[in-house]
Write a structure and sequence with these properties.
The structure holds 2 protein chains of 2 kinds.
Chain A: E1 6-9, E2 13-14, E3 18-26, E4 48-55, E5 58-65, E6 74-81, E7 85-93, E8 98-107
Chain B: H1 5-10, H2 15-19, H3 25-37, E1 42-44, E2 48-50, E3 54-57, E4 61-66, E5 70-77, E6 84-90, E7 98-103, E8 109-117, E9 122-133
Parallel strand pairs in B: 1-9, 3-9
Antiparallel strand pairs in B: 2-4, 4-7, 5-6, 5-8, 8-9
The chains are: A mainly beta, B alpha+beta.
Chain lengths: 108, 138
């Protein structure tokens, strides 16, 4: 899945201690391992099994994902930003690939 | 809470597959809860699971969970072939323990959310979602 494309929405600026809302989406088929192809063969499972968000190395959220998460996994959550820094988002694919996205935020 | 027409159309074929799902998953729900809690008693209250009452398309059902003071929340879908949906673990930078995502549901069923609180106790809640077109198999 070299074409997995992460998209994240993080405000560019915030005031210290402010609660911000983060939205993330990654394009990925999340093949559940339940479906069959036209010949009746099971299509092997290939999903993103873990998603993490960190801010300056500190954990914000860590999600364990199962095949019941929809195609193009979407997450929305809140975070507080104590200082200027960078959010790093990481998705872990079943096939060992890791996709990352980073978003800087300035605290004024 | 948005369904696009495109999402609706994608899964037209899967309804037949969903109807044939076995019910053995019910016992698996309890196994999952036991694995999460380590056998501890599970209370009620203090956790909110938000989901649509009727989901037209089981392939993308928007849900959100909130449990103030929780360190992690596990979501289960009792009617799916594999009831585990996912587990949210919250870090210190979250002002309120709340997250939203989109999940697959094979058919009309109960959604269950179990939260582990900071003091080590557990609470759960459940909610029924009616699904018009299931989101598994095909």
């Amino acid at each position: 899945m070299a074409d997995a494309k992460p998209r994240v929405r993080v405000p560019k600026t915030a005031s210290a201690g402010e609660t911000i809302t983060i939205k993330t989406l990654i394009s990925h088929p999340m093949e559940s391992g339940q479906r069959k192809d036209g010949d009746g063969n099971v299509i092997p499972r290939q999903i993103i099994n873990r998603f993490t968000a960190e801010f300056n190395g500190e954990l914000v959220i860590d999600v364990t994902m199962e095949p019941a998460i929809s195609t193009n996994p979407y997450f929305e959550f809140d975070a507080v930003v104590p200082e200027t820094g960078e959010f790093v988002f990481t998705w872990y694919d079943d096939n060992g690939e890791v996709y990352t996205a980073a978003s800087p935020i300035t605290v004024s | 809470m948005t369904f696009t027409r495109r999402e609706m159309l994608v899964l037209g074929l899967s309804a037949a597959g969903a109807a044939l799902l076995p019910l053995r998953a019910v016992a698996a729900v309890e196994d999952n809860i036991a694995a999460f809690t380590g056998g501890a008693a599970v209370g009620e209250g203090g956790i909110t699971l938000t989901a649509p009452e009727i989901a037209e398309n089981g392939n993308t059902v928007p849900i959100s969970v909130s449990a103030p003071g929780a360190v992690s929340i596990m979501i289960l879908a009792s009617g799916n072939p594999n009831p585990a949906v996912g587990t949210f673990n919250f870090g210190a930078l979250m002002p309120k323990q709340e997250a939203s995502t989109r999940i697959r549901l094979a058919g009309t069923q109960n959604l269950i959310a179990v939260a582990k609180m900071a003091d080590g106790s557990f609470v759960q809640t459940s909610r029924e979602v009616k699904v018009t077109i299931g989101g598994c198999g095909g």
